[in-house]
Amino acid sequence: MAPQFFIEIVYFIIISIVIGFIIVFYILTQRRGRESSSLSSRESGEKRGMEKGEKRWLIFLFIIVIIGNILFLSPILPSAHYVFWLEEKPKITITIEVRNYEFVFPEKPLTIPAGVPVEFIVVSQDLVYGFGVFRKDGSMVFQMQVIPKPYVNRIVWIFDEPGYYDVRSTEYSGPRHPYLYFPDVIYVR
Amino acid sequence: MNEEERKILSIRFVVVSLIFLALAGIEGILMRFRIMNTLLEFFDEKHFYSMMTAHPFIGVYGWAYMTVMGAFYFLIPYILKKDIYSRKAAYLSFWLMLIGLIVVWGTTFLTHYAPLYTLYWPIPVAYEIIGWDPYSILSFGLGVVLILGGVLIFFGNMFATIFLPMRQMDGGTTSSWYVLKELLVTAFNLDKIRAKISNVPQYTSKAFNYPVFVVAVFRGCVDTTLNAFVIGGVGVLLVVFALGNLFPYLSIPYNVVDPLIYKNVFWWGLDLIADGNVLIFTAGTWYLLVPLILNRTLYGENIVRTVILADLVVSLFVWNHHMLADTPQPLFLQLQGQIFTWGELVTMGLTMFAVLATLWFARPVKYSMPLKFILTSIIGYAVGGLAGIIQANYASNRFFHNTQWVIGIHGHIQLLVGLSSTLFAAIYALFPLLTGKSLNERLGNIHLILWTVGGLVMGLSMGLAGTQGMLRRTLYPMGLGVFETYMTVAVLGALMMALAFTVFLINILRTVKLTDLLKIIF
Fold this sequence. Notes:
The complex is a heterodimer of chains A (about 190) and B (about 525). By secondary structure, chain A is α+β, with helices and mostly antiparallel strands. Chain A has helices spanning about 5-30, 35-40, 50-75, 80-85, and strands at about 90-100, 100-105, 110, 115-125, 130-135, 140-145, 155-160, 165-170, 180-189.
């Protein structure tokens, strides 16, 4: 399963809980509750510290922040793996030049062995473009922005699944942008 | 300016903002149909992208900003019990915004100039490659300058109203340096820091001299003012380059602007709206309306000022989450952007907690329309904000960046269900104060349900298409394939929102006569 689909499932579970919570909250708060004594005589100014509930909530949020960052920087996701954890150097380097809405590939299709780190270097001579690689079902493998010269845009990737892949410009570069689509331009063997 | 005049000014802002919301909505629906490869005979790609360029300007500056400005011109004097500092500046900000927006919209409509709101360098000035008309660049740049000029005048007027004594009262300091000093000291708690360094015991910071809402306004205005300088600066840049094309002796090669540094500055400025201003103004509006309607103190009122300050500080350092796909960007900056973005989970989480706790301790709550809209706004920010935090990680950005996930689940749900619901809450709350009449609750409920469900349906279906690989800012002339079902559902969501807005307009026009409204505007 592509990682974005797993993230999507987790996300939908969380937001279902959030929306459900708000609906239940809406119903419950229309009923009579106990008056909180801590709110009846409130001191103004900053002399009072945080309420106990607020402190607990703050700690909970900080824990989520720490766990979230650890997960997203860990090698679980391939993109983090290749940037932060991969020690192997790229075996193949492919340079693609972009100029006046033309992507110039060194060969068509680009034939790449599976399981090997490949470095893509994309250089734009004029505008901002994007470089995105897509599976045949349309889902995205990875992408990067292509910032024009003097910048050189690089990304390292390891393809696990053999087959054909499409390339599409993933950034708007003017009204001709939708036509920057190159089906079957990568072949992983 | 007396209270009646301030009311009229506020109504003007709100009515015009609703017209812009309608315009942005019509554009949105037309673009939704065009994405589905219909209406081909009316829209070529240039036309489509010019509409996509105007849409966020009209939606953000026309709808959101003008509603906020209208509300603040009434609420700040009302709460502080003092007049607006400058009457002339108040009217000038209205007209500059209005004219600027008409110029931007008119330019894109008439010339099909389409650099998109991102304005990535050198796209807005690349005449030779893309074929823009230099006059369209000049006109668009001027429009942007007018809009942001109006914004700057508004915030200058707000700062002066909050920090200066009344004009009529002689003897007080009235210089702009004084306002700037007071603003920086109060917004960033510098007086408290100074007191700590000097070991002053029991010092209460100046921010505690102001109600929480006012603190949110001036801290949010810091973000928005910085934003206005950056985006207004881009407008000036466009004017300069357009003049260079029209008058060759003024010509400057466009590679004098570094595209990566430009993008950093641009996103730093633009993100101050999204992650600073929107969240802070929203928090301020919740902090004002919820206790006011429930007639009780805000839960954790002593802490929320600090939360707003944290929000302001965080907002200054989050722009790098827009640069995660830019591989020439230094990695440490990208990681800094990721970590600071998670900080927004904390600040927004605390804001929501304060509001929900206030409601909880006020049981039994009789939910009026503003309170209902605030609850849906919390849903919008939770759903949209969580999506934003997911995509703003270095690793996940590799497959979320520039997909429909970003603009659907994050962008549109945050703006339409989150921000717009707060703006509707403010309008429902202010309506009786401004007109002496209340809007019909049954129609209000229909508006609320259709708007919220429509916004969620549209945004979530766009997001699902995004995880399937559908890009934003892209047409699929060869066919939508697997994305078609999601886009069809998104159209239905958009139509529900259009229906909700129509119900809202009917509600207004049942309550206040159209002729009376027109008299106020003109």
